[in-house]
């Protein structure tokens, strides 16, 4: 069953169009990766779902289980944000409010929807513990600066999933973390998504991240989708020259060490 | 290297700032308990003891009516500082409310508010105070109203700028993405992250407002002559400065020392808050 259906989405800033007619769908409970180099429009496409950027004008269709979001009223959008679609930001350092405790921020999505403080607190602590934060009940009243980067990103994930959204948009959730912590956070995100039957749209420029995480992969370039395929097929038999180039640019241990990686210029030359 | 120097600087308050902090504390304490520690009645006229120089009985001398200058300074601290506090409280509240409205209320609201503040900034407070003095009658109340009216636009501008900056933060965007409503967004996310600048600005403004209030009292539209307000005391003593300089100089020193101390503390807070300034020092 399709949860998120994007049809012919165009996004422009003033006169400049940056996303040129994107089609994309995410099935309920599925994990889809949206891959592309920076400036490819992947982030803009994903954020169009929640319409956070007032400067962006959208055309086409974004529907969530049949509810049209392009041109939706502010009140409709508010009821989607946080409760049906969660968003994990790239940088856990700047996406947390520095003057509020992390507990306050984790409880907030529940509290603004009328859940009692006591219940919200219990659920928050349980979730934080599930996300691997040790001593969750004690650390619940700490401030963001008292946490390390990896722990902070767990807090950000807790905030995004506590209201049990059907879809989680993760915008480069591990880019700001070091490699070891990246793997932990991704595994955790994967586990939580499976446990809760939550669909994930993962935005990343890192193909290495995609392989173990996603069911489907969508490759974007210059504001257009160049290839959509199940993850195994994409890695085994990429169709579009750009995708082939991208895969060639990933360093691998099983390749002849003497062979050079494909450069961006070479990809550009092949893909046109 | 540079980080360790910076940390050490933050731990140790520079000597000048430490003295300024002590003076500020002292002045505030005097404002509270001044009337009780005054050695003489600040309003008792004693014509047999007029214009006595500083001595063991009257440490800072007596004025033209034989009133003890030290007692009057101690008592007057309350009037001057209370008037300053009222002005700052009023202007900060107006600044936060109106400045936030301008920052988040959309382009039309912003334009209207900013044009009004431009007008407010263009009118000098002394001129405004003269107008209020005529309309309401001279008195410390008129001075407070006049300075408040001319002081609020600065705070509106400051708060507007800071709030707009905070609105751009990622945590604000993230709160919007969670479905947080507008009112909660502003009250719980934007304002708590914007208002710390007020500590600095208010401390710096204590000196400036105090000078204007005393200045208004001096030219006769603020506190009136018999009352023990520092500016009014100077005004009363100005006529016979040759026969009793102490009645003029000591309240003047009180104003100067307090103003300098508060602006030093304000500067110190500003440097604390802004690490880039710290490196320059």
Automatic annotation (TrEMBL), chain A:
<dbReference type="InterPro" id="IPR003439">
    <property type="entry name" value="ABC_transporter-like_ATP-bd"/>
</dbReference>
<dbReference type="InterPro" id="IPR003593">
    <property type="entry name" value="AAA+_ATPase"/>
</dbReference>
<protein>
    <submittedName>
        <fullName>ABC transporter ATP-binding protein</fullName>
    </submittedName>
</protein>
<keyword id="KW-0547">Nucleotide-binding</keyword>
<dbReference type="InterPro" id="IPR027417">
    <property type="entry name" value="P-loop_NTPase"/>
</dbReference>
<keyword id="KW-0472">Membrane</keyword>
<dbReference type="GO" id="GO:0016887">
    <property type="term" value="F:ATP hydrolysis activity"/>
</dbReference>
<dbReference type="Pfam" id="PF00005">
    <property type="entry name" value="ABC_tran"/>
</dbReference>
<dbReference type="InterPro" id="IPR017871">
    <property type="entry name" value="ABC_transporter-like_CS"/>
</dbReference>
<feature type="domain" description="ABC transporter">
    <location>
        <begin position="4"/>
        <end position="247"/>
    </location>
</feature>
<dbReference type="InterPro" id="IPR050388">
    <property type="entry name" value="ABC_Ni/Peptide_Import"/>
</dbReference>
<keyword id="KW-0813">Transport</keyword>
<dbReference type="GO" id="GO:0005524">
    <property type="term" value="F:ATP binding"/>
</dbReference>
<dbReference type="Pfam" id="PF08352">
    <property type="entry name" value="oligo_HPY"/>
</dbReference>
<dbReference type="InterPro" id="IPR013563">
    <property type="entry name" value="Oligopep_ABC_C"/>
</dbReference>
<comment type="similarity">
    <text>Belongs to the ABC transporter superfamily.</text>
</comment>
<dbReference type="GO" id="GO:0015833">
    <property type="term" value="P:peptide transport"/>
</dbReference>
<keyword id="KW-0067">ATP-binding</keyword>
<keyword id="KW-1003">Cell membrane</keyword>
<dbReference type="GO" id="GO:0005886">
    <property type="term" value="C:plasma membrane"/>
</dbReference>
UniProtKB/TrEMBL annotation, chain B:
<feature type="transmembrane region" description="Helical">
    <location>
        <begin position="20"/>
        <end position="38"/>
    </location>
</feature>
<dbReference type="InterPro" id="IPR035906">
    <property type="entry name" value="MetI-like_sf"/>
</dbReference>
<keyword id="KW-0812">Transmembrane</keyword>
<dbReference type="Pfam" id="PF00528">
    <property type="entry name" value="BPD_transp_1"/>
</dbReference>
<feature type="transmembrane region" description="Helical">
    <location>
        <begin position="245"/>
        <end position="269"/>
    </location>
</feature>
<feature type="transmembrane region" description="Helical">
    <location>
        <begin position="116"/>
        <end position="134"/>
    </location>
</feature>
<dbReference type="InterPro" id="IPR050366">
    <property type="entry name" value="BP-dependent_transpt_permease"/>
</dbReference>
<keyword id="KW-1133">Transmembrane helix</keyword>
<dbReference type="GO" id="GO:0005886">
    <property type="term" value="C:plasma membrane"/>
</dbReference>
<dbReference type="InterPro" id="IPR025966">
    <property type="entry name" value="OppC_N"/>
</dbReference>
<keyword id="KW-0472">Membrane</keyword>
<protein>
    <submittedName>
        <fullName>ABC transporter permease</fullName>
    </submittedName>
</protein>
<feature type="transmembrane region" description="Helical">
    <location>
        <begin position="197"/>
        <end position="225"/>
    </location>
</feature>
<feature type="transmembrane region" description="Helical">
    <location>
        <begin position="140"/>
        <end position="159"/>
    </location>
</feature>
<dbReference type="InterPro" id="IPR000515">
    <property type="entry name" value="MetI-like"/>
</dbReference>
<keyword id="KW-0813">Transport</keyword>
<feature type="domain" description="ABC transmembrane type-1">
    <location>
        <begin position="77"/>
        <end position="266"/>
    </location>
</feature>
<feature type="transmembrane region" description="Helical">
    <location>
        <begin position="81"/>
        <end position="104"/>
    </location>
</feature>
<keyword id="KW-1003">Cell membrane</keyword>
<comment type="similarity">
    <text>Belongs to the binding-protein-dependent transport system permease family.</text>
</comment>
<dbReference type="GO" id="GO:0055085">
    <property type="term" value="P:transmembrane transport"/>
</dbReference>
<dbReference type="Pfam" id="PF12911">
    <property type="entry name" value="OppC_N"/>
</dbReference>
